[in-house]
Amino acid sequence: MNKSFIFSILALATLMAAISLYFWAREPAMDPSTMEVKARVMAVDDSEVHTFGLSHIGFQTLGIQILNTRFKGVKTQATNSLNGQIDLENLYHVNDTIIAAVIMDKDGKIEHVKAIDLYRQNSLLSMFIVFTIALLLYAGAVGVKALISFVLSIFIIWEILVKQILAGYPPLIMTTFTLILLSAIIIFMIAGLNRKGLTAFLGTIAGLAVTLCATLVFGKEAGLLGMTQPYVNALIFSGYYNLDIRQIFYSAIILGASGAAMDIAMDIAASMDEIRIKKTNISAKELIKSGFTVGRQVIGTMTTTLLLAYSGGYLTLLMIFRVKDPSFMRMINLKIVSAEIMRTLIGSIGLVMVAPITALLGGIIIASFRSDTKSG
Predict the structure, then answer these.
(1) Any idea which UniProt keywords this protein has (predicted)?
(2) Closest to 273 (Cα-Cα) out of 244, 259, 294
């Protein structure tokens, strides 16, 4: 087995272990008299539950056995309040594994237990394992690098972007800084520190700059404040009254388009680099022309990809429009619809501009390395 592949595997394992330990050691913002536990539902009493279609109102009384913490093995009762909010609540059944909040008295004994949610970590972990195995089997060492960049991206977004925005730093500035950092990590880790990586990186940054400018220009004109984003009200009511929600909305647009921008830039840069290797005497003009050809093909599908991705997130909204059949003018001017159209179109503008910019940069950077014929 290749030594670099083994080293990459060890690096990935070390990184994931370190980040896992970090999150495991974090103290949740919780009342000291409350403890979150994992529990199995042993019995269910639904006598106080009233069902209306898919909604449930009332409360369940659950017989549970705690599976972890110092209360492991303890059998007790838990309540599950139901207010008809099917997007937030669960109706539990025997043998379900759940998360519960244990409220303790001053002596540290169990006073009351409240069911919080289903325990889904095992299912999510299984999905991640399948994803990891598939990626490693197909991509090998490159797949390991992709996983490292994937894990690092999660950590950077959580610990730098989200944390600093909540601390009061300007959302757009923090998002721009974060995306430059992420682009450098992801692209140079996958492509290497070479002409291909430099071309893809600069193309990505240029495309994101266009996206940022378009967001600022059209965002103000559209009069969207960003209040259509999920959990904005919950965030404000949690005490974060001074957050610039509009800038956070703009940041979400740029962040959402960044992955596709990197993808296009890398596709074009890699294609141009491969052409340069196969045809060492190709001119910059010919190389740029080839880059434009590749870019057109990629853009043709990528803009639709953004539309499908955003439409998938609001499929039920589209269905309710079919049911209610509002006028086109009313539908198109709804805040949530206008916000998603803006998100899709602004992202697409950035993607369209990434392709020619990357092709032009590739013609300058890649074609200039006459003596370097080895792909990075």
Answers:
(1) Membrane, Transmembrane, Transmembrane helix
(2) 294
Distance in angstroms (rounded) separating the CA atoms of residues 363 and 272? 8
Q: Are strands 34-45 and 55-66 parallel, antiparallel or unpaired?
A: antiparallel
User: Tokens in use for 20?
Assistant: 């896992």
Q: What is the mean pLDDT of residues 359-373?
A: 75
Q: Are residues 99 and 195 in the same domain?
A: no
Say whether both 221 and 312 belong to one domain.
Answer: yes
Q: Are residues 356 and 216 in the same domain?
A: yes
Within 13 Å, how many C-alpha atoms sit on residue 54's CB side? 6
Q: Which residues pair with 52 in a beta bridge?
A: 55
- Residue 103 pairs in a beta bridge with 34, 112
Alpha-carbon span 342 to 16, nearest angstrom? 36
Is the same domain home to 209 and 312?
yes
**Angle of helix 171-191 versus helix 245-278 axis, rounded to 10:** 20
338 has a pLDDT exceeding 80: yes
Residue 330 pLDDT exceeds 90: no
